[in-house]
Amino acid sequence: MGTADMYHVSRLPNGVTVATVEMPHMASVSVGLWVGVGGRYEPAPLNGVSHFIEHMLFKGTRRRSPRDISQDVEGLGGSLNAFTGEESTCFYAKAHHDHLDVLLDVLTDMFLHSRFDPGDIEKERGVIKEELAMYLDQPHQQVQELLNELMWPGHPLGRSLTGSVKTIDALTRAQMVDFRRRNFVAPCTLVATAGAVKHTQVLKAVGRHASHFTPGRRPAFLPADSEQTQPRLRLFTKRTSQTQMALGIRTCSRHDDRRFALRLLNILLGENMSSRLFQILREDRGLVYDVHSSLSAYEDTGVLVISAGLDTDKLPAVLKLIRRELKRLTDQPPTPAEFRQARDYLLGQLDLGLEGTENQMNWVGDHLLGYGKIIQPSEVKRQLSQVTPAQVRSVARAFICPPRINLALVSPLKRDTGLYDRLQV
Q1: For residues 159 and 149, what is the distance between their CA atoms, to the nearest angstrom?
Q2: Predicted confidence (pLDDT) per residue in 58-78, tens digit
Q3: Considering the chain, what is the average pLDDT of its residues?
Q4: Sequence-separated (6 or more) residues with CB below 8 Å from residue 341
Q5: For the CA atoms of the chain, what is the radius of gyration?
Q6: Are 87 and 205 in a shared domain?
Q7: How many Å apart are CA 345 and CA 294, to the nearest integer?
Q8: Number of folded domains in the chain?
Q9: Structural domain of residue 412, as residue ranges?
Q10: Residue 173's CB: how many other CB atoms inside 10 A?
Q11: What is the pLDDT of residues 70-124, one digit of tens each?
């Protein structure tokens, strides 16, 4: 079976999309029930409601107690979980492919018939506040939240997916049920499966639940405001043994063709242990234990983030070296050997990442909700293979400049004296 023959997509009359990745050589099947709604769809008073709803869907339905939900999947040797993102939410399960019907029944029961019992809401409110406290106690997590606030002030992308103590305390059952009713609608719902199952089999199984999905219009979100005329700096003073830094550079949306060159730039800069920042800051200078870069791309914007934990006294030297490496990317293209190594790493990671049923299910969900279609892995590899070193330098010049740079710090420092000048690349 060719790669293209693995992917099948159908849209049911009520608007629900069904996608299947046929992998007959696998023992498992992964099933994801996705909705194209996440944190950036929330108005400020409801910040954290998507994540709260994610928790509540595990707290019992008309037919199943919370224990029944977990045991009905784990009792088969399977697993069950969920995640909330900025633009989507996913509830997913994995087990032997013989149990497809059970997995679908559990997930759709959770998705459609959760009780939102007032007592359970109060208990889960406390659990989520503990989760929030845990994040705030972890400086490496807190600095990422600060960076988001700095980059998108007053915008949903700048707020925590978990919410705040204030919004979590204020959320009512009526608000949760209403948000789910208005946003978890059929036209933005996707059932994605990957494993040893046939598309016709999946369609038949989903069809048994299709009439219960809520009709409605696709919800909309507030466009991102990317206006910025100078670097931004945010220092949060905290008694910590290290300084945690997150440097964010505004980039492009997931629809921008420059994203392919940007992915290679990220490999060169800091994604792995062969990258420039890791080699220079850790291996050569011993200034950090860990440093890495990562990309996030949304419907209308994106960000490249450089993160590191370091001794506070070493911060000026680390920022100077990061600035030097960013400038080197804008000044000259990577050497052919370095570029080839980065490209081979990226292509290899793409192949390895799609070996399992869960990763294939995520690929389908991300693409259908993000692009409206499944982009074949072979097409992504073709696009990456066509990127040139000159194009990497071109995207560096387009994005790495002072008006796009933001620096957040969680540090024992009491003042940011001199740090702002170090953001001038």
Answers
A1: 6
A2: 999 999 999 999 999 999 999
A3: 95
A4: 274
A5: 23
A6: yes
A7: 15
A8: 2
A9: 232-333+388-423
A10: 14
A11: 999 999 999 999 999 999 999 999 999 999 999 999 999 999 999 999 999 999 9
The whole-number average pLDDT for the span 189-217 is 95
Active site (catalytic) residues: 54
Same domain (yes/no): 248, 182: no
Encoded tokens for 384 = 């990456």
Which residue among 144, 178, 212 closes a domain? 212
pTM for this model (two decimals): 0.94
Give domain status of residue 219, yes or no. no
CATH of the domain at 204: 3.30.830.10
Q: Secondary structure of 37-61 in the HEC alphabet?
A: CCHHHCCHHHCCHHHHHHHHCCCCE
Q: Is residue 224 part of a domain?
A: no
Q: How confident is the model over 333-385, as pLDDT tens digits?
A: 999 999 999 999 999 999 999 999 999 999 999 999 999 999 999 999 999 99
Q: What angle do CA 112, 118, 121 make, to 5 degrees?
A: 75
Residue 300 tokens read as 């209308």
300 shares a domain with 185 = no
Cβ neighbours of residue 234 closer than 8 Å, sequence gap 6 or more = 146, 147, 149, 150, 406, 407, 408, 409
Which of 212, 242, 263 terminates a domain? The answer is 212
Query: Is 272 in contact with 345 (CB distance < 8 Å)?
Result: yes
Report residue 7 as tokens: 């992917």
Banded model confidence at residue 1, pLDDT cuts 50, 70, 90? very low
Kindly state the helix (H) or strand (E) to which residue 104 belongs, with its residue range: helix 100-113
Q: Can you tell me which residue has the tokens 């992917």?
A: 7
Do 96 and 19 fall into the same domain?
yes
Amino acid at 217: R
Return the residue matching tokens 């050997």.
Answer: 337
